[in-house]
Amino acid sequence: MALEKPYKDIPGTIIFDAEQSRKGYHLNQFCMSLMKAANRERFKANQRAYLDEWPMSEEQKQSVLDLDLNRAMSLGGNIYFLAKIGATHGLSFQQMAGSMTGMSEAEYRDMMLAGGRSPEGNRYLGEDGDAQPHHQPQGQAGKKVEV
Amino acid sequence: MAKITASVYTSHVPAIGAALDLGKDQEPYWQPVFAGYDYSKQWLKDNTPDVIFMVYNDHATAFSLDMIPTFAIGTAADFAPADEGFGPRPVPKVIGHPELASHIAHSVIEQDFDLCIVNKMDVDHGLTVPLSLMCGRQDPVHGAWPCPVIPFAVNVVQYPVPSGRRCFALGQAIRRAVQSFDADLKVQIWGTGGMSHQLQGARAGLINREWDNAWLDQMIADPRACSQVPHIDYVREAGSEGIELVMWLIARGAMADVTGGAKPTVKHRFFHVPASNTAVGHLILENT
């Protein structure tokens, strides 16, 4: 009998459960290695070579090279681990969180200053809130796509 | 006999620590956050305990994916502030209380909570930011935290995290453990993390002010009912990282009213949006 995973129907959200953790073990442990300054330098000097030292899938490596955090999460990454890649590149947590929405840094910061993203329409897939798949990317990036 | 005198609840947003460390705490963005703790700093000076039992979570710092303990108690003599990728925070070393920590571990395991015992561990912003908020800036070398701290780390990173119900029961076990310690220690229990926030995906930036405050109301007045809130409600309403709030129920479970004592006094309550990506909540409850 399958496990019950009621969190699968929340838009724009990947819950890091035991299954995701299993998929992302090496990806996340690679991130963990960036806690050491010497490793951060080696990674920045040649990202591809550093990644090739880890038994990660090619997709996982590419998501790191592209700094595509949504993709990395779908492949088993966890945000607290992935944040170490951002820190290596000098990005703040807010910049990283914002990057997953498609919004510019200023747009995301302004949304937070205005009280954050509303849960309205964002609780279940199929509603019409700004985090729903049919409203991506958000902000000006999304408006350009529509033109 | 040791006793739990009060519980303190607060968010532990890393950017708050960075703002304080970089001297930005009086900037317009941060000033309202720190102002919410002015009362608390004085309260802690007037009510300094002998030990703080600190419920927090590690954020891929001391625990990688090599080991993921659901509940881990720090029994070391001291704990160094961790390097989370930017160098360690410039704050004092955290002094532990090995005797009380080992006693609690023994008692709580006998009460059927299978704790992981940690004799060596660095502590990240989850533990040091609450201390900074409640004590203000402290010199890393010449300064000191006001008393020993027992770190108690809860896994809220990999799902499933422990349920609110389990955390609430654990708080009661910790209360019994403290009360069976044979020295007259005043112990505060702090629950940290939350409130609503989501740090990932297209839904990043979610804040739910109404839900947070309704949850706080219930946690104060009817913690048993609050402990029944299922995981999915936290995730859906308060964001994927809002689930950290289950840690507050450990502290709440250790208060006197849960086992037939008097209701606690609400000494202070504060709520502010935003601190970086997060809704900041803070509460002080005193046993009377």
Short structural summary:
With 147 residues, chain A is mainly α. Chain A is built from ten helices and no strands.
Which percent range fits the helix content of chain A?
Answer: 40-55%
Strand tally of chain A is 0
Number of helices of chain B: 10
With strands numbered from the N-terminus, the spatial order across the biggest sheet of chain B is 6-3-7-2-8-1-10-9
Radius of gyration of chain A: 17 Å
Q: What is the quaternary state of this protein? A: heterodimer
Shape of chain B: globular
What is the CA–CA distance across the termini of chain A? 47 Å
Overall structural class of chain B, as computed from helix and strand content, comes to: alpha/beta
CATH structural class of the largest domain in chain A: Mainly Alpha
Average pLDDT metric of chain A: 94
| CATH homology group of the largest domain in chain A | Dioxygenase LigAB, LigA subunit
**Which H/E pattern describes the elements of chain B?**
EHHHEEEEHEHEHEHHHHEE
Question: Overall mean pLDDT score of chain B?
Answer: 97
Straight-line distance between termini of chain B = 17 Å
Q: Which percent bin holds the helix content of chain B?
A: 25-40%
Molecular structure report:
The complex is a heterodimer of chains A (about 150) and B (about 290). Chain A is mostly helical and about 150 residues long. Chain A has two domains: about 70 residues, Dioxygenase LigAB, LigA subunit (Protocatechuate 4,5-dioxygenase, Chain A, Orthogonal Bundle), CATH 1.10.700; about 55 residues, no CATH class. Chain A contains ten helices and no strands. The radius of gyration of chain A is 17 Å and the shape is globular. The relative contact order of chain A is 0.13. Chain B is α/β, with parallel strands linked by helices. Chain B is built from ten helices and ten strands. In chain B, the strands form two sheets. Chain B has an eight-stranded mixed β-sheet with strand order 6-3-7-2-8-1-10-9, with helices on both faces. Chains A and B meet through helix 2, helix 6, helix 7, helix 8 and helix 9 of A and helix 9 of B.
